[in-house]
Amino acid sequence: MTPNIFEQIRNIASDLFSIPVERITAETSPENVEAWDSTQHLNLVLALEEKYDFQLSPEEMEKMRNIGEVVKVVENKIQAVKN
Amino acid sequence: MIPEEKLLDLRKEINEFIAANAPEKASLRMAELWRRQRDSATAAFVVSRYEHLRSKLALIPYRLAIIRSFTVEPAVPLLRAAAYVSGIDLAVHVGDFNAYPQEILDEDSSLYKFSPNVVILGVRTADIAPDLWQEYSDLTPEAAQQAIQRVSNNFQQWIRAFRQRSQAALIVHLLEQPMQPNAGLLDAQSETSQSSAIRQINEAIRRVASEHRGIYVLDYDALVARHGRISWKDERKWLIARMPIAANQLIHLSDEWSRFLMPLTGKVVKALVVDLDNTLWGGVIGEDGMNGIKLGPEYPGAAFQALQRAMLDLTRRGILVAICSKNNPDDAMEALNNHPGMLLRPNHFAAMRINWNDKVQNLREIAAELNIGIDSLAFMDDNPVECEQVRAALPEVTVIELPEDPLQFAVTLRECPVFERLTLSAEDQQRTTLYVEQRERSQAEQTFQSKEDFYRYLEQEAVIAPVTPASLARISQLTQKTNQFNLTTKRYTEQQISELASSPDHEVFSIRVRDRFGDHGLVGVAITRDSAEAYEIDTFLLSCRVIGRTVETALLSYLGERASARGKQQLAGWFVPTKKNAPAKEFYSQHGFQLESENGNGLRWELDLKQHPIARPEWIKLNVMNGENG
Fold it and tell me: Are residues A58 and B236, on separate chains, in Cβ contact within 8 Å?
């Protein structure tokens, strides 16, 4: 995981789910964060698209089951855009 | 670009101010954060922090409902964050997906239960007119006409039903055009094209809206076009989440909605105060001189002319412009009077402070001279330091910090939502003239020995008339905007005024005033109600530009006559104190009223008309119009 991107995504998740950034780890997921419902999942997708200026596919949205997975999806996407 | 650390630090500071119970400071930082970073994550942060602060700040509560045929939910936090930093505590209700027709037609729907102040109706062309959108090539001209009729009738029916069931304002999204019309290039060549069909529906909606009070249209197609149709659209999100708008465009939809909120909630600016050097012209007049400053039809002077043009447009909307500049007055006036590139001249400015004093002090003086509150001022400057000083010392002033590129100046000004208006009165359009005449009056006043001599010299004429369809908008506007000489500060929509006017125990009057210097227009309102013993004054207000010339006595004396005509011996009214209406505090006692009672809201005053009739001021020529010919 790129530390920089992990940090950025933790900050976004902290804003969206209203929880302190220290409590957000790679394992943070809808199972352990009440605020992470389907509406917030869409908001997370939109926040990532705003931040990184790409559009996520339904398959990529599916994969984002915890913060660690979100970071992977974003890293792959940034890599793909570069190539 | 703002470094990420700075934005994280701002968040930390905000959390600390909230923890330290410093809501105003937290709120100021939140406004700064929102200025620098306007995205979904920041919106969520701002909204969640304001949830902690809302009870501790003086915010305007406002209720907005959105009824729609597409997913708008992700735009709601953006809108609420923008509202919060503008001082509006916005409660939002989003109607069920595609349920808008039932919600409008059913009086018991969740829409009306929410009791909104304003409702947005947002429908996609593809949803309401799938035949016109998808299958236009298959339609005969007759079938296309029928479809246009059908959709126009739908909107007409909804708007009428809404107006019968609710007093809320309604904002209707006009229909969007397809990215690629069915006929390609032929579309533009034909009178019966797909785009013309959609235009006809939009024209029909606009017509119905103008026939009702408080119904406004939002030109959705123009909004999309402004931001680029190709980047606006996100087909994939539409298919998976019924969200047709790309993530980074949602802020523009939210901004467009906010523009309506400002005039609806009265968060409007009445005067724009501007700097001169590097704002109205390029360069510094004191150093570069008349021939050196950049101002004219060519680059780079054209950027400054464009800004002046935008300011002229604002004056036509009733917004005053004023100057606050650190300069030698002679240098600046030379440019203002004689530079061939100037579109604005001294007679466009309602006030001028060209000196070396502190801008904060100058702004206070300008507000006092124009007789408006500090919170009715906007301040525009190219210098970030001046902007920051004004923000810190006068947080209620709207600060417009100009970007580095002068070509962006005019755009920045025109984008500012505090200058939006939803209706315009005749007074608005000539306000600058009124203020320039006012300056002449003040100069005249100083040359008279006694007040009475001055009143006689003014040759005031006043016309009192019951409300008419033509005066309704202005009367409502005065109840919404008048803060200083306003005894009860009750705000009424046009709809409510029209209901009061048709109620048998209420009367609604307006007063127009002119004098030797010019016409003030419609400047005062009185609303009365009959009770068992008394003629009760519900509302009594005057625009500040005629206060202190005994016009208020003339209007009050007329109310005394009305009371007697309606068989009442008592004239009664409340004074409800607010932060701003101290000028009206002594009004009743000065006219012989007795203080009858006092409660948490205000003071009740009564006058026995038999013992204390109110004399008409002899120096005002008073005309009273009857209902029909008013």
Answer: yes
Reported as half-sphere exposure (CB side, CA atoms, 13 A), residue B470 has a value of 9
Task: Go through chain A and tell me how many residues it has.
Answer: 83
> What does each C-alpha distance from B197 to B128, B136, B156 come to in angstroms?
13, 10, 17
Tokens of B251: 């802020």
Q: How far apart are CA B564 and CA B281, in angstroms?
A: 61
For the record, the structure tokens of B311 come out as 């300011």
Q: What is the DSSP letter of A83?
A: -
Chain B hits for A47, Cβ within 8 Å: 39-41, 247
Chain B environment of A50 (Cβ under 8 Å): 39-41, 247-248
Strand pairing class (B534-542; B88-94): unpaired
Question: What is the chain A residue with the closest CA to B74?
Answer: A43
Query: Per-residue pLDDT tens for B328-381?
Result: 999 999 999 999 999 999 999 999 999 999 999 999 999 998 989 999 999 999
Q: Which of residues 129-148 of B touch A (CB under 8 A)?
A: none
Q: Which residue has the tokens 């525009």?
A: B380
Among A47-51, B65-69, B426-430, B459-463, which stretch is predicted with the lowest mean pLDDT?
B426-430
- The helix/strand/coil state of A4 is helix
Quick one: closest CA in A to B234, which residue? Answer: A55
Q: Please name the member of B73, B240, B246 whose beta carbon is closest to the beta carbon of A39.
A: B73
In a 10 Å sphere around its CB, with 0-12 CB exposed, 13-18 middle and 19+ buried, how is residue B188 labelled? exposed
Q: Does B238 touch chain A (CB under 8 A)?
A: no
Domain ranges for chain A:
3-82
State the best of A8, A15, A34 to mutate against chain B, taking most chain B CBs within 10 Å. A15
Q: Does B234 touch chain A (CB under 8 A)?
A: yes
Chain A contact for B244 (CB, 8 A cutoff): no
CATH H-level superfamily of B444-624: Gcn5-related N-acetyltransferase (GNAT) (3.40.630.30)
Q: How far apart are the C-alpha atoms of B334 and B565, rounded to whole Å?
A: 59
B231 touches chain A (CB under 8 A): no
Q: To probe the interface with A, which of B18, B40, B72 has the most A CB atoms within 10 Å?
A: B40
Residue spans in chain B of domains classed CATH 3.40.50.1000? 271-419
Q: Using CA atoms, how far apart are residues A21 and A7, in angstroms rounded to an integer? A: 9
B391-416: per-residue pLDDT in tens? 989 999 999 999 999 999 999 999 99
Closest by Cα among B370, B343, B382 to B269 = B370
Structure tokens at B255: 């901004």
**Is the domain covering A3-82 a CATH 2.40.50.140 domain?**
no
